[in-house]
Amino acid sequence: MKRREFTRLGGLGAVGLWLGGAEGVVPRFSGSTNEMIEGVDLQPLEVDSRRLGDGMRTLAGFGANDEGGIDRVAFSDANVAALEWIEALLTEAGFSVERDLVGNLVARKAGSVDGLPPIVFGSHADSVPGGGNYDGQVGVMGSVEVATVLADARHTTRHPLEVVVFTNEEGGKTGSRALVGEVEPFELDIETASGLTIGEGIRRLGGDPDRLDEARRGEGSMAAFLELHVEQGAVLDQDGIDIGVVAGIVGIMRWNVVAEGMTNHAGTTPMDRRTDALVGSARFIEAVYRTALEMPGRQVATIGIIEPEPGAPNVIAGRVRMTLEIRDLSMDGIGAVFDAVQEQAAAIETDTGVAFSFERFYTSRAAPTDPRLRDMIEDSATELGLSSQRMPSGAGHDAQSMALIGPVGMIFVPSVDGISHAPEERTELADVVNGSNVLLRTLLSLDRQGLE
Q1: Separation in Å, CA 399 to CA 36, 366, 415
Q2: Are strands 161-166 and 243-249 parallel, antiparallel or unpaired?
């Protein structure tokens, strides 16, 4: 598709608005940069690919490691420096920037119509240890670029705009979950990869962990939330699809699991007289895998940590600590898998004498995206000549927290070979540009049409 040029007359403070897509049509200009010519939109506005690429490269330098990825974990020096740099960019784009009570970077710009709720968009700038340069980063820099394009065009949207860079997404979506009142007090004492607890980290970013209740936003406090993100899977890349229109984001529940057997001497205890917690755990792990595999649906279940005690080569393990994570597009689906896993654990206890206990420590609710926003994202992609596909998100995102207080839409761009959370993670710049343009166009459509 041939891209149309956006033009601004220097010194006149006027915005070029195309009246048609045909070659040779002369652009017409409004007398005010805040007015819309009836029947005309701002479709010619496009992101600056060079500026966006430069921004991606600069952000990748904060916490860069020798493997080609980043160690920009939440609350680290690199995370703090990156947020300060992003704050400067948004300030330059005419936004007023602050840190809220949970340490989120929140940039606001007033709209032209009084009383309208804000359109919120953004993502996260923190990484996993040894992570890549695209997870979260694409959504942040795409949002900054959209804000900058609108500032360059001197266009004021009807709705207020709010760009949010969320705190500690990789460590449990702390920033977005606090906004919907779902951060539990015990979480503040959890130590993060930065060496700080979540509570200490929030203070470092300018928040106040003692006042998180005040950070909560009410239902209806935003017009909508939009998030641009890399897929973190291989579907779009393998199928040659430009844009993923996210239909829903999986729910996540996690449990600490303890398998209790009996510690004993590995040389003097006969095989038929052992209550080996590690053997029971091995059967449990296989049962978790089999249960999730054989049940109908798209659920997944994972044992991520295994810690036998005492962990000596000549001692039968008397206790094993594990983590269990279950994900599904519905919370009922997660519950069904967990019930089946508990039944399997009871059967293993009968066979081996190893007892299992479960303690839930994390919940992130499943979140469908708004069907009207799906349509807008899909239409925006089509108008740009991009292919799109509706799909679920198997990873958790800040958007699923925000879905508890208003409509959300999510835009995916391809991840090369589906690699994520690794230095090899990559998304082509052309795809970052495509996703950012879809974000820009969707935001303008939402601002013009609303969701009524």
Answers
A1: 30, 10, 19
A2: unpaired
The CA-atom distances, in angstroms, between 243 and each of 1, 125, 211 are: 16, 22, 39
Query: Do residues 214 and 296 both lie within one domain?
Result: no
Which CATH number does the domain housing residue 308 bear?
3.30.70.360
The answer to whether residues 183 and 211 touch, using CB atoms and an 8 Å cutoff, is no
Do 40 and 56 belong together in one domain?
no
Average pLDDT over residues 131-146: 97
Helices (H), 130-234: 137-152, 174-179, 198-204, 212-215
Helix (H) or strand (E) holding 356: strand 355-364
Residues 120 and 69 in one domain: yes
Split at pLDDT 50, 70, 90, the class of 175 is very high
pLDDT of amino acid 42: 54
Same domain, 266 and 379: no
- Could you please report the per-residue DSSP string of 116-155? PPPEEEEEE----TTB-SSTTHHHHHHHHHHHHHHHHTTP
Looking at the fold, whether 134 and 220 belong to one and the same domain comes out as yes
| CA neighbor of 414 nearest in space, from 384, 435, 399, 385 | 435
Phi/psi at 317 (5° precision)? -65, 125
**Pair (121, 176) in one structural domain:** yes
CB within 8 Å of 295: residues ≥ 6 apart = 336, 337, 340
Count the alpha carbons within 13 Å of 384 in the hemisphere toward its beta carbon.
29
Of 364, 393, 426, the position where a domain reaches its end is: 364
11 and 112 together in one domain: no
Q: Are 286 and 279 a contacting pair, CB within 8 Å?
A: no
DSSP string, 58-108: HHHTTTB-TTSSB---TTSHHHHHHHHHHHHHHHHTT-EEEE-TT--EEEE
Give the type of residue at 374: R
Structural domain for 34, as ranges: 1-44
Alpha-helical (H) ranges within 260-370 are 277-294, 331-352
What residues does 276 pair with on adjacent strands? none
Has residue 403 got a pLDDT over 60?
Answer: yes
Q: Are both 138 and 88 inside the same structural domain?
A: yes
